[in-house]
Specification:
Number of helices: 4
Shape: rod-shaped
Structural class: mainly alpha
Oligomer: single chain
Helix content: over 70%
Order of helices and strands: HHHH
């Protein structure tokens, strides 16, 4: 379609060109605004949106100022938290306690070692004396047996 045909179809009969141009301009503006409203509903009222954005920004800044003033007040307040008393005050330090326990353990070990050695010596002496008694008893028995043999030998010789 040629533009001249469209233009001629749009011109009404009996109107001047300026009146026709005004009418055409009005219809074009209405069409463009209608199409614009359909395609971009967000931008329908740009001035209203700018005012709303300014109001939101103003409210946000006001909330930020209020928060900062509240935070400063909190910073200036004295704290209510108090650390509990240290339960380890007056107690022996753990490292010192460990050293003390080690020394006590070494002392106890040395004492028990000494006691064990004494017991071992005592039992070895007792065992030695028991063995001596047994040897003495055996030697006495051997002497008796030897004497009995000798007597038996004498009796046999006497009988012969």
């Amino acid at each position: 379609v040629r533009l001249s045909k469209v233009w001629s179809a749009m011109q009404p009969c009996g109107k001047s060109a300026s009146a026709h141009g005004e009418e055409l301009r009005g219809r074009l503006q209405a069409t463009v605004s209608r199409l614009h409203a359909q395609t971009c509903p967000d931008l329908k009222n740009v001035a209203g949106q700018k005012a709303g954005a300014n109001d939101k920004l103003h409210a946000q800044r006001l909330r930020a100022r209020q928060y900062l003033s509240w935070a400063r007040k909190l910073k200036d307040l004295p704290g209510k938290f108090k650390m509990p008393d240290d339960p380890y005050i007056g107690r022996e330090k753990p490292a010192d306690r460990i050293k003390r326990k080690v020394k006590e353990g070494e002392r106890n070990t040395l004492h028990k070692d000494w006691q064990y050695k004494a017991w071992l010596e005592k039992t070895s002496r007792a065992q030695e004396s028991r063995l001596q008694e047994q040897l003495h008893a055996l030697s006495a028995a051997d002497v008796e047996v030897a004497r009995a043999k000798a007597q038996a030998e004498q009796k046999r010789e006497e009988k012969l």
